[in-house]
Amino acid sequence: MPRAQAMWSSFKHQALIFLADPQWIIPNIIAPFVLTLVALMLFRDVTGPVVLYAVLGGGMMGMWGNTLYSSGWSIESDRWNGTLESVLATPSPLIWIIAGRTMWNALIGIINAILIFVIAEVVFHAPVSIADPLLFFLALFLTLLSLSALGLVFCSFFVLTRSGRVLTNGLEFPIYVGTGTMFPIALLPFWTHPLSLSLGPTWGIDAMRYAAIEGYAGLEIGFAGDMLVMFALTGVYLAISIWLFVVMEKRARRDATLGRY
Amino acid sequence: MGSNLSRSARVFWSSAVLAKKALFSWLSPSLWLMQLFTLSLFQIAFFVYVTKYVDNPDISITYVAVGNALQSIAYVSVFSVSNITSEEKWQGTLTPILATPANRFSLFIGRAMFQIFNGILTVAIAFFYAAVIFGVDFSNTDMVSLILVVLVTSFAMTGFGLMISSLGLYLRTAMVIANIFLFIGLLLCGVNFPVSYLPSWLQPISHAIPMTYGTDAARAAVSGSSVFDISGLLLQELAVGIVALVVGYILFMVFENVARRKGTMEEF
Asked: Which residues neighbour B259 within 8 Å (Cβ) at sequence distance 6 or greater?
């Protein structure tokens, strides 16, 4: 219970920080937003469900952009503000505190995705008709959880490094490419496919396409298959991130490098 | 006159050396190299695969790969340069710097110098990827023209970045604007599709950003145009870059005055 309380307090704290300075949402969403607009310009003479690739991909990129930057900055902002040592000195393990922050960021991530869908529909008149809205939102929500778990894995490394910002910038496009946000991963070189398939969001975006596009046949294991694989991979990410947080936290305490900047 | 010039040159050089040292005091060389070699690769890959999937007959892989290779300069010349004043604020060094009588122009141009070098390296690597990984044919390329395009674009975009950086003196941080201008070029500067695709009210904004001329000039150079053929584009790009630099300098002086008067130099 105290751990859940720590997580809840961290969630509320993150919400207050966000509300105190909401301009920080711009760096988080600007890239996915612009990339979606560029894709919609490229797709301008194309009609039919193919356009949905751009819109759904934009939504997924919005969620990843937000998750990645929030994870990257979570530890980095503590380091800058000089609060990292205090946070680690509390009896609650760091992962519960970060998890609370991640939950808030995930909530904002959903808003990002919905914002992109609305702009695509209203400004670009892209056909955002979803074949099965219930399954679609289920896939959207679970994809966000999977992205958050992936973000936690990266975040654990940022405990040790003062270069979280640089790494964050470098991780944005690789995930957009690797998960095939706006194109089928079959277009990627064959040797990259195992890497793509080891990313939970690859299955998540495929599940979203199954739910949104009638007659879609992507990775050919169906909606339920996609969800199961994504669920399993998310579990693996969570297990890795819990282990990594413990290891990294111990190492940072032992080497006394937490506030090194 | 002569001593003023040599003082400015000294400020410029020490500022450039310090900026490089400051960068590598927190960024390890291995991470810098990683950034140098990966940033452009995945950006080009993303748009090349989207283009392959869309199969728009007006837009070829070469068009997109060359545009994105040149635009990768924005990561350093726009994003890093824009954040110069904000970084000084965060580190608490802005006030001591502005308390010195050093010429501001030399000081901040000096700060951006390493990023010009960094930008040129980034683009060179990006063009290498365009050729080796994405199969862009450089056999007809006029190399002198292409090198000149990269040099002019790097200089002009750094001027543009310094203009945004001036806003960081007034605003809490330039990071938000830097992020907007880092990516907005993908949409406005003819990187992935012709500027004519944009609504007519947006096109003048495209022509106020040096990169728009750079992407056209780079494509022309890749298809074999000589320096003479692209001189018009290069001159326009250079002119826009110089205007941005001058506007940035004026803004800097105005905001410095405002900050001194109001005592808000490090308010953020």
From this structure: B169, B170, B265
- Supply the pLDDT for residue B2: 65
Q: Mean pLDDT across the stretch B69-90?
A: 82
Cβ <8 Å between A46 and B186: no
Closest chain A residue by Cα to residue B199:
A41
Question: Cβ(A172)–Cβ(A92) under 8 Å?
Answer: no
Q: Are A76 and A157 in contact (CB under 8 A)?
A: no
Alpha-carbon span B187 to B166, nearest angstrom: 24
Judged on CB neighbours under 10 Å (0-12, 13-18, 19+), B253 is middle
Residues from chain A contacting residue B49 (CB–CB below 8 Å) = 177, 180, 182-183, 187-188
Measure the CA–CA gap between A28 and A106, rounded to whole angstroms. 12
> Residue A236: what pLDDT?
94
Q: How far apart are CA A204 and CA A178, in angstroms?
A: 13
Three state DSSP letters for A51-97: HHHHHHHHHHHHHHHHHHHHHHHHHHHHHHHCCHHHHHHCCCCHHHH
Token pair of A102 as six digits:
């991640």
Find the length of chain A: 261
B-chain residue closest to A46, CA distance: B54
The answer for residues whose C-beta is within 8 angstroms of residue A158's C-beta and 6 or more apart is A71, A72, A74, A75, A76, A164, A167
ipTM of the complex: 0.85
Lowest mean pLDDT among A24-28, A79-83, A242-246, B95-99: A24-28
